[in-house]
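Need residues for this backbone.
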């Protein structure tokens, strides 16, 4: 058996070397598809790790309450991730914030109400800026750091705002605009604090804090008549109480809604939902598109193998005449298709991670290397080799020795 495998390998190598250019182009077709899949899986894993790491950094005692959709569909997940949609459709309110604050074991509650408005100061105008309504507890719940000034407090909440590092530069052309004024919602506010720049804009809140403005949620409600909350972040007393506190929050909110369950309470790994769900959907769709290029590469393998069978018909006749079975011929050509697929897979994995590395130079997404990715790509490649190499191999195996021996190039 080992001798037969060595023979197949030797014949496959000889055939590939004899047609180097044709073999390289065939491998390249497979490599492009594998590189695309590798890049997609690498970036997806990197983003998932960023979100998971942020949850770990924030602490394992965090509970998140969000408005919930009745079905886990693509549309529902997209709506949950769209800030404007969440703001308009959210079922959460300040009444819920007060109710959660009263739950035993809760140490801090920070609602997040997101809106957009035009910001105007003496020199610049931002036409559509992200405005976050929250409470002083937000600074306790989130791992934020102040670069200048102070955060919102009960003493300065009426007309005070805190802005992100990037927004400060865009509005005031300086990183320290503390004490400067800003107008929106028809009212003048004073900048009391500026956040430290955050390296990664990917987070489970789905908000870029570098380019956001923070204000007191009660002041926002006065200016907008009614505030619907996108998310409520809750800090528990300790990790061991997460489950009972989450259960009590669920019970309390259901009682306030007379039994309605149009909300979700999550902690631990579940906090990254729905961002992780949308990420999986997007990566799946992209992988499907990349799979099309793999099919094209597979057609390339079938094409070159059919040409090879045609060119080596006389060889097939000689091998059958000296005792080679149809199975031996089948395995010879199928083995050659495997070799082309594996070479394309190796090249594709290398190109995929090279592209992932280049992407990491301009984004916060570092290349994510996992044995799962390697297994998926190798199995996919083997499947392509089997599917598209079987027909040419069968065609070669079914040739009659006498007809093959009569064939001349």
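Answer:
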């Amino acid at each position: 058996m080992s001798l037969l495998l060595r023979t197949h390998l030797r014949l496959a190598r000889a055939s590939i070397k004899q047609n180097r250019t044709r073999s390289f182009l065939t491998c390249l077709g497979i490599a492009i598809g594998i590189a695309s899949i590798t890049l997609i899986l690498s970036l997806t894993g990197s983003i998932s790790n960023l979100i998971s790491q942020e949850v770990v950094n924030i602490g394992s005692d965090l509970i998140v309450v969000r408005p919930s959709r009745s079905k886990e569909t693509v549309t529902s997940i997209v709506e949950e991730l769209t800030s404007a949609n969440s703001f308009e459709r959210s079922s959460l309110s300040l009444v819920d914030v007060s109710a959660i604050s009263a739950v035993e074991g809760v140490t801090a509650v920070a609602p997040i109400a997101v809106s957009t408005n035009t910001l105007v100061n003496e020199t610049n105008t931002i036409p559509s800026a992200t405005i976050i309504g929250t409470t002083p507890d937000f600074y306790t719940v989130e791992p934020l750091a102040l670069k200048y000034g102070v955060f919102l407090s009960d003493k300065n909440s009426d007309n005070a705002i805190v802005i992100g590092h990037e927004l400060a530069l865009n509005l005031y052309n300086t990183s320290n605009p503390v004490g400067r004024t800003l107008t929106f919602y028809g009212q003048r506010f004073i900048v009391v604090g500026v956040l430290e720049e955050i390296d990664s804009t990917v987070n489970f809140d789905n908000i870029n804090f570098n380019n956001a403005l923070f204000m007191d949620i009660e002041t926002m409600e006065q200016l907008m008549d009614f505030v619907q909350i996108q998310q409520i972040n809750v800090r528990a007393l300790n990790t061991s109480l997460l489950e009972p506190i989450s259960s009590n929050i669920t019970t309390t909110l259901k009682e306030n809604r007379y039994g309605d369950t149009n909300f979700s309470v999550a902690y631990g790994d579940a906090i990254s939902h729905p961002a992780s769900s949308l990420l999986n959907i997007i990566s799946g769709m992209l992988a499907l598109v990349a799979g099309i290029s793999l099919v094209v590469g597979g057609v390339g393998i079938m094409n070159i193998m059919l040409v090879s069978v045609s060119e080596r018909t006389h060889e097939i006749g000689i091998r059958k005449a000296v005792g080679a079975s149809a199975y031996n011929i089948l395995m010879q050509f199928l083995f050659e298709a495997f070799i082309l697929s594996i070479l394309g897979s190796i090249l594709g994995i290398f190109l995929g991670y090279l592209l992932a590395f280049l992407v990491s130079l301009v984004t916060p997404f570092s290349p994510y290397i996992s044995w799962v990715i390697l297994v998926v790509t190798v199995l996919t490649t083997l499947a392509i080799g089997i599917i598209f190499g079987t027909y040419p191999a069968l065609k070669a195996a079914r040739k009659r020795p006498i007809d093959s021996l009569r064939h001349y190039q």
